[in-house]
Amino acid sequence: MSDSTRELIEQMKAQNPGEPEFMQAVAEVVESCSAVLDRHPEYRETRMIERMAEPERVIIFRVPWQDDHGDFQVNRGYRVEFNSALGPYKGGLRFHPSVNLSILKFLGFEQIFKNALTTLPMGGGKGGSDFDPKGKSDSEVMRFCQSFMTELARHIGPDTDVPAGDIGVGAREIGFMFGQYKRLRNEFTGVLTGKGLDWGGSLIRPEATGYGCVYFAAEMLATRNDDFHGKTCLVSGSGNVAQYTIEKILDLGGTAVTVSDSGGFVHDETGIDREKLAFIKELKNVRRGRISEYAEKYPSAVYTPVDPDLDHNPMWDIKADCAFPSATQNEINGTDAANLLANGVMLVSEGANMPSDSAAVDQFVDAGILYGPGKAANAGGVATSGLEMAQNSMRLNWPRDEVDARLQTIMKNIHAACIDAADEYGTPGNYVNGANIAGFLKVAGAMRDQGLV
Question: Of the candidates 448, 322, 365, which has an alpha carbon nearest to the alpha carbon of residue 44?
Fold first, then answer.
């Protein structure tokens, strides 16, 4: 790292104290783009990275609601509208107790580059609340969502900011928020994505992040004349991303052997087949149960609860060929990365946002494995959200095969853009640099053209 790059990172840390997740994301982009700044001094002179790292707007608001016992509750709501150089702000809403400004700024910053890679006209943003939907009744979730949208509605719109779902925000929550927006604004418009198929949603949208992550991995494997046949895969998480990652791995001839939630993980060495996957979908999407029930139903599986005293996750210490971290940020640390490499993993494709910490990323890159960072590998979700926006604008729905074909094409193009940018700037095969540079160049060009805004 050059002295100027180190100085820039330290300067930005001083401007954003107490925001470790955000600074982790910023530091990665700054390091990747140092060669770009050397070749294009005009971007350094106009402080392009500093401008990108400062949100255009941050909205913080209270969300009061009433629980089923009649007691009053209050949570904090956020929307970080980060960059609109390429189009309306686009990014999910996360409802989880861990939500804070640092996490949402990191997610929104990553979204800028991810959305740029899709080639679709979308800016970057993110939002959410520290509300926890787990254990809440449908009525409580509805009342919270209505209160949340009552404030958020004044800041969003189909040509301004189009939120989607994220952790804790699925079809139920999107439906409640869409209904409240429609009620407040007297408009039926594509203001949210991830909508139900009967009222403006897109086919393939629930599957898109998981499918896209596997499509990206398949492109990486193809660079080494390889494919998924016979590959053993580790998958974390058990929500939409993990479920459809497993489904597409099965489609392409691989086998997933793990799945997890916040309580622990399951290792099924016989493989998660389609019957078992159907059980996971029913367990998580309908009953909202715990993944430990999988091991109760299938004797071939072993459940390991989370041990907070460990310095690593035992799930990443299982022999495998590929890993798909699909749960949350920083779930793979340096010890986990070393275990993955020692156990023969030769491909990591990130379904979650920044699931590998800096020490883990360094190990993957240094080892020369196929490593697809989240802003590239999991861009299929927001890409299909963009396709949903297009369908809403045209007042029509494309068939499943057409949306899936468009998704596959987008993931191929993202892979090619990463490869080309990495080659152009002297780090061939480095998908981290390739993704950051390709995204940066597109957004920087648009910001340059639009003046000092």
Answer: 448
CA distance 4 to 172: 48
Contact 413, 388 (CB under 8 A): no
Residue 355 neighbours by CB under 8 Å, 6+ apart: 236, 325, 326, 327, 328, 329, 330, 331, 332, 374
Query: What angle is formed at CA 301 by the lines to CA 297 and CA 306, rounded to 5 degrees?
Result: 105
pLDDT of residue 4: 81
pLDDT of amino acid 3: 80
Range 57-188 classified under CATH 3.40.50.300: no
316 CB neighbour count, 10 Å cutoff = 26
Residues identified as active-site: 126
Q: What are 251's two structure tokens?
A: 């489609």
- In words, the CATH class of domain 207-368 is alpha beta
The two most distant CA atoms of the chain are separated, in Å, by 62
Whether the Cβ atoms of residue 90 and residue 81 lie closer than 8 Å to each other: no
Helix (H, G, I), strand (E, B), or coil: what is residue 109? helix
- Domain 57-188 identical in fold to domain 207-368: yes
Q: Shortest CA distance to 49 belongs to which of 58, 67, 36, 60?
A: 36
Low-confidence ranges of the chain (pLDDT < 50): none
